[in-house]
Amino acid sequence: MLEKHLQPPVRLVTTRLPSPTADIPPLLGAAWPGRRRGLRTRAGGVLLGALLLAPLPVDAQGGAMDTVPRSTRPLLTRADAITLGAFTLATLAITPADRRLAERLQNPRTQENRVIRRSAAVVRELAAPGSLVIGGTLYAVGRLGGNERMASLGLHGTEAVVLGLGIVSLGKVMAGRARPYVTADTNARDFKWMRGLRGGRDYHSFPSGHTVMAFAAAAAVTGETARWWPRATPYIGTALYGGAALAGVSRMYNNQHWASDVLVGAAIGTVVGQKVVRYHRTHPDNRVDRWFLAASVVPAPSGGGRVVRLGLVPRRD
Predict the structure, then answer these.
(1) Which end of the chain, N or C, is less packed with Cβ atoms under 10 Å?
(2) Alpha-carbon span 223 to 150, nearest angstrom
(3) What is the rounded CA–CA span in Å between residue 274 and residue 286?
(4) Which SS3 state, helix, strand or coil, does residue 255 take?
(5) First vs last C-alpha separation in the chain
(6) Which helix (H) or strand (E) holds 171?
């Protein structure tokens, strides 16, 4: 049962920063079966490069105490600029191959492969609506059980996904890029200002919303868990970012997006997820938490047990 309710916000204050983490190993090879070299190999390399550019949280060495006032720690860093710049270069590199990649992935032999088809469906659903459902569930269960870590994980993961969706929705409308399936010879460079507003979803190709959601959730969850289990961060990050990358590839396999749509979506999702976590660390009592997903456990109206009330309403102290 879902109802609007007012409840004091969950306050999380940490005193330690996560330890440095390792890079993410290759995980995109499974998206293209076989050992053929050529276009698919080069495309896989570019997508893998983008995945490697999604860094795991690194804020301090050896879990050192955070002696800098939270309000003065920068939200945007040089590392963020480097990440965005690298994603931009990767996108520019792969854009000329958008059309050829789309044609290769629509090859009947690839499309008829049951393993690939089913795997694409699973990772697609995990990205959307899975990221929202899982995040909301973690938050509700955490609030019910008094587990602040779980509640924080669900809350900030969901915030990252929603914020990423807001950004990507605006981008889709403004860019007006045609999806690969619109015509048999759709031009991958077919952008038109604000056409997404009039043309509908057929012109919502750029950037990929599923990819944004998947990478936003991956970045936020990796950042949150790094505070509690820094030694496990490389494994958690590898699994989450790898799954997010496969979600993006699945959208290309389903002929819904160009490769460049996926790379830009990965960049947006990664940065948004990292910024949400960093913002909550630097501003533990912030307005976002006050407004987002207010929840509480209350007696059921019928008198038989308890229910969780959720709502997008301001919370009072």
Answers:
(1) C
(2) 13
(3) 16
(4) coil
(5) 24
(6) helix 148-175
Bridging pattern class, strands 306-311 and 294-299: antiparallel
Domain extents in the chain: 29-58+75-169+209-286
157 neighbors 142 (Cβ within 8 angstroms): no
Quote the CA–CA distance of 192 and 194 in Å, as a whole number. 6
- DSSP assignments along 6-68, one per residue: --PPP----SBPPPP-PPPPP--GGGS-S---SHHHHHHHHHHHHHHTSPPP--SSTT-B--S
d(CA 299, CA 15): 36
The stretches of 229-302 forming alpha helices (DSSP H) are 233-253, 259-282, 287-291
For the chain, 317 residues long, give each residue's pLDDT as a single digit of tens. 434 444 444 444 343 433 333 333 333 333 334 434 444 444 444 454 444 455 555 443 334 334 334 445 566 788 888 988 999 999 999 999 999 999 999 999 999 999 999 999 999 999 999 999 999 999 999 989 999 999 999 999 999 999 999 999 999 999 999 999 998 888 999 999 999 998 899 999 999 999 999 999 999 999 999 999 999 999 999 999 999 999 999 999 999 999 999 999 999 999 999 999 999 888 877 766 666 655 445 555 555 555 555 554 444 44
